[in-house]
């Protein structure tokens, strides 16, 4: 049961060698039996978002999040990341709009990060890697009865991805950072209440969206990804606390929880849509305007 919960509860984490973002392949986390775990699907995640190849979709409205901080339950270290989990029995905390045809309920959020500031994110933008990435995981409660069912099905999940870069201290994140030492060890869980994750969204509402997969087993292709264009900033001391967590349980040889990301996957026959007009096309348009005028 615990195993199932770990696999299903942890939306994505994987510390191994990754297209230039190298961690020793000898250090495979137990969740991955080997790099060949990749099932060869056609809609796997994460991907490199190529800005010039993304297609502006004028009908993509901004996403709308409505989170009730009273639904925040606890935080726990599942051995791959730390998860803040929410009560998903009702529609009190949902995301809707954008590419989503109906509201999706918030289940949990978690992060991926690197051993240092040179890598850590799962997605990249024109090959640019960020030191960390936040994932807010939601499930389609109109189509499916449970999170576990939605994971396995078409349009089952919606994940908001937010890039994290090094910069200013993030005051709202600090409440979370302060509690992390209490979940340092694998399988530790502690009460964590009244946290509204919308405080972690960037102020700019622009995003890219594409069809993809979970980035941990079972790697099912059930995810509508919504990747926010603008990163949020955290400072070095906050990332340092992320890196002080452990993959290991009490009594085991300590292994720091770092590089918990999956390698990039091929885009294959997919289109990344953007909710905004790419700046490059805008400038071309203006240039053409000037020449015509
Ligand atoms: Zn994830």
Automatic annotation (TrEMBL):
Residues 14-276 form the Alpha-carbonic anhydrase domain. Belongs to the alpha-carbonic anhydrase family. Its EC number is 4.2.1.1. This is Carbonic anhydrase. Transmembrane segments: none annotated. Its cofactor is Zn(2+). InterPro entries: CA_dom, CA_dom_sf, Carbonic_anhydrase_a-class, Carbonic_anhydrase_a-class_CS. Reversible hydration of carbon dioxide. Pfam families: Carb_anhydrase. It comes from Engystomops pustulosus (Tungara frog). One of its GO terms (cellular component) is mitochondrion. The keyword Metal-binding applies. The keyword Lyase applies. It is an enzyme of class 4 (lyase). It catalyses: hydrogencarbonate + H(+) = CO2 + H2O.
